[in-house]
Design a protein that fits this description.
There is one protein chain. The chain is of the alpha/beta class. It has 3 domains: 39-257, P-loop containing nucleotide triphosphate hydrolases (Rossmann fold, 3-Layer(aba) Sandwich), CATH 3.40.50; 303-336, no CATH class; 341-544, Nucleotidyltransferase, domain 5, CATH 3.30.420.240. It contains 19 helices and 21 strands. The strands form 4 sheets. Strands 3-4-5-2-6-7-1-12-11-8 form a 10-stranded mixed beta sheet. Strands 18-17-14-15-16-19 form a 6-stranded mixed beta sheet. A 3-stranded antiparallel beta sheet has the order 13-20-21. A hairpin with a 4-residue loop joins strand 11 and strand 12 (288-292). Helix 17 crosses helix 19 (531-544).
Length: 563
């Protein structure tokens, strides 16, 4: 009986080399005996078009495949899959151990991964084990594994142990694996399918990748990765594979050992300079195949469908760099500019229409001590959000006197009737009654501006509100980007506001399988303040949450009509 992979790892190097040599000899003998049987594996493209149900037409709850059409592969898909997953009659193995299938969003990547999983489970060295992985089990269950379930059901697969695992009559098991390396160690799988490898960024993700390496003691054990491009400075696992092919993301030069796949060299795309290049590469010494495409090739992406596809894919709330990453499958840096120069300029074109005498929702933001503090006011007018106030205090390396600056300015604005009142929040009513407080529509970062809030409350009976800096900030930052991209923000003529918005970066994050952003300051030595951008984000979000249809005008003595 062959030892498990963890037993091999426990041996000292010399003993391991001796045992591996013996194993290779045994496997070679076994492989020769199985070659005749192995080459009978059906053609993957023909099998998928005859057996794989198109998941977009299947009910995900009932898995009813009655009347559902089989999938139709594009010509380039057939050629790529056949090249990677046709057994060599001499060795009884596939030509590659690691296969990367990387192309723009909505190009059928997840469907391709699920097709490969079903075909493998039904035909390759059965009984076999197939692991499907994503950022977490729920995501792997909902995408590649979810797309495979109708076909697995049609093949007679039954639920096995958990709802995340199915077993076919031939004994092959397909399961949506966890993201826990300890749970998945020690398996004897023939195939692992990795969905969106760009999002694997943690140390535990690295450990999982290492634990689920192709298995030495199996005749066939491979990785199949479906993904689009990631971030150069955080998507380490995918970037290591990518830079095994290219020297950098311009794709103008190949690494030593990498070469175009001769049979597929006519399937071409363009590099960052617009020059035609192949899409399919290999590194024979590493057993690596990399399909790297920037073109939309599927029928629903081209011709008269192209614009509809772009609108469906992009929507709102996406960075310019993320649009390039998703729609063109081009690598980007995490520290991306929040607003393009065109969008930023457009927000100042209607500055003459912005009123500085309207009652507004305000927000305050500050970084660390001796750093900039910002105060921003926003109001809504006929579907447009308008920034009617923006002020920044930059102390030049000294501590700011908050009473003489921020508090004094807020009191002036309130007494001029420019600060809206708001409804009491949950848990505030008792304090409002006992302390005779007036809740005002001013929001602050509780970590930095707590003392300002306490001074206004104790000395002036004005009650500001805390703005959460985790989930709530992600919502507000993403919302602000959406409004800018929809050209729904008009800014007053303010050089500090323009400078802070121009300097703001966006940290792209995945939150509950949804892409969100967080506004961050640049990391370079010459990084500029962004406090007014953060203020505007918080104020915009809270302004959007106010009841609609109430006409509010500025009145003296801090009173606002409508509340």
């Amino acid at each position: 009986m062959l030892p498990a992979l963890d037993q091999l790892r426990a041996l000292d190097p010399v003993e391991r080399q001796i045992l591996e040599a013996k194993l290779r000899h045994k496997l070679l003998s076994k492989r020769k005996a199985n070659i005749a049987k192995s080459v009978a594996i059906p053609d993957i493209a023909d099998w998928c078009e005859s057996n794989f149900y198109d998941p977009q037409f299947c009910n995900p709850n009932t898995l009813d495949f009655t009347g559902v059409p089989k999938v139709k592969l594009a010509p380039h898909q057939k050629r790529i899959l056949r090249k990677c997953l046709t057994l060599d009659p001499k060795t009884g193995r596939f030509p590659y151990r690691t296969i990367v299938y990387s192309c723009p969003k909505k190009s059928g990547k997840s469907t391709t991964g699920s097709m490969v999983a079903c075909w493998f489970a039904a035909n390759v060295e059965t009984p076999n084990s197939i692991y499907i992985l994503a950022n977490d089990r729920e995501q792997s269950s909902g995408r590649v594994y979810g797309f495979a379930k109708p076909t697995l059901t049609a093949l007679g697969a039954k639920q096995y142990e958990t709802r995340f695992k199915k077993i076919l009559s031939n004994g092959s098991i397909v399961q949506a694996a966890t993201s826990d390396p300890e749970s998945e160690a020690g398996g004897t799988y023939g195939l692992t399918v990795w969905d969106e490898l760009w999002a694997y960024k943690s140390d535990r993700a690295r450990l999982l990748w290492d634990e689920l390496m192709p298995i030495l003691t199996r005749n066939i054990s491979i990785r199949f990765i479906v993904t689009y491009a990631g971030f150069e400075d955080s998507s380490d696992l995918l970037y290591e594979l990518y830079t095994t092919i290219f020297t950098d993301t311009t794709e103008t030069e190949l690494k030593v050992g990498a070469q175009p796949v001769p049979e597929l060299i006519d399937i071409q795309t363009t590099n960052a300079k617009g020059e035609p290049i192949p899409t399919c590469y290999e590194v024979p010494s590493k057993g690596l195949f990399y399909y790297n495409d920037h073109d939309n090739r599927m029928t629903w992406q081209v011709g008269e469908n192209a614009e509809a596809h772009r609108q469906e894919t992009v929507g709102l709330g996406m960075l310019e760099t993320n649009i390039l990453r998703l729609l063109e499958n081009r690598w980007q840096k995490t520290e991306a500019r929040l607003l393009s120069s065109e969008i930023l300029a457009a927000s100042f074109r209607n500055k003459a229409l912005v009123s500085a005498s309207r009652a507004m929702t305000f927000a305050i933001d500050a970084a660390m001590r001796k750093d900039c503090v910002g105060l921003c006011g926003v109001y809504e007018d006929k579907g447009q959000y308008k920034t009617g106030f923006a002020k920044a205090w930059n102390p030049g390396g000294k501590d700011i006197d908050l009473k003489e600056t921020v508090i004094a300015e807020l009191l002036r604005l309130y007494r001029s009737g420019l600060v809206l009142r708001r409804e009491a929040r949950a848990g505030e009513k008792k304090a409002i009654e006992s302390e005779r407080l007036t809740p005002i529509d001013v929001w602050y970062d509780p970590y930095q501006m707590h003392q300002v809030a306490m001074d206004l409350r104790k000395e002036h009976r004005l009650l500001m509100a805390e703005f959460g800096q985790t989930t709530e900030r992600k919502k507000s930052d993403t919302f602000m980007l959406q409004q800018y991209q929809a050209f729904k923000i008009d800014n007053l003529d303010n050089s500090d506001l323009e400078s802070h918005l121009d300097a703001a970066k966006a940290d792209v994050q995945t939150d509950a399988n949804t892409t969100v952003i967080r506004i961050v300051k640049g990391t370079g030595a010459n990084a500029k303040p962004i406090d007014l951008a953060v203020c505007q984000s918080m104020a915009l979000w809270q302004c959007s949450q106010r009841p609609k249809g109430i006409s509010i005008t500025a009145l003296p003595s801090g009173k606002a009509k409508g509340w």
